[in-house]
Design a protein that fits this description.
157 residues; mainly alpha; Four Helix Bundle (Hemerythrin (Met), subunit A); 82% helix
Length: 157
Amino acid sequence: MNLGLLLALSGVAISVFVSGIGSAKGVAIVGKAGAGVVAEDPEKFSQVLPLQALPGTQGIYGFLIGFIILIRLNIFGELAEISTSGGLMMLIGSLPIAIVGLISAILQAKVAAAGIGIIAKKPEELGKAITFSVIVETYAVLALLASFLIVFFVPLT
């Protein structure tokens, strides 16, 4: 295995693991807040669930970037030749979604947990609670786009 391939595969691991850690922590934060509300009023489960799911998207974004890198490497066929600089660029391309995914998932979870408080008192305000949380998501989407542009267009050799 050459160094370029090792670096590119490291980018896969970093994008998936780091953003996944953020999402796992995020959905846990919101889940704790949601469990308290649902324990008091089980009818609010369907309103709490979308807020809990939102911080999970960053992990999906990281997985998507990892998958794109694997596709670029032709991992399901004869491996593509990749230079050390190409592998390094793939690794660097994985960093925006990895880092922003980690941080934004946790911050989005804190906003979503506050939204759970809104639902506990005013269930008709679910849309506002989701809107507050989705605004944080914007930065994860921008990081996804940056990572996508880097890993999709980087020359392999």
